[in-house]
Amino acid sequence: MAKLKVAILISGRGSNMAALIEAAKAADYPAEIALVVSNVAEAPGLAIARKEGVPTAVVSHRDRPDRETFDRAVSVELERHGVELVTLAGFMRIFSPWFPTRWAGRLINIHPSLLPCFKGLHVQQQALDAGVRLSGCTVHFVIPDLDAGPIIAQAAVPVLPDDDAERLAARVLAAEHRLFPLALRLVADGRARIVVAPDGSERVAIADAAAPLDAILNPLD
Ligand code: GRF
Question: Which of 51, 61, 100, 109 lies at 20 to 30 Å from 148 by C-alpha?
Answer without folding.
Answer: 61
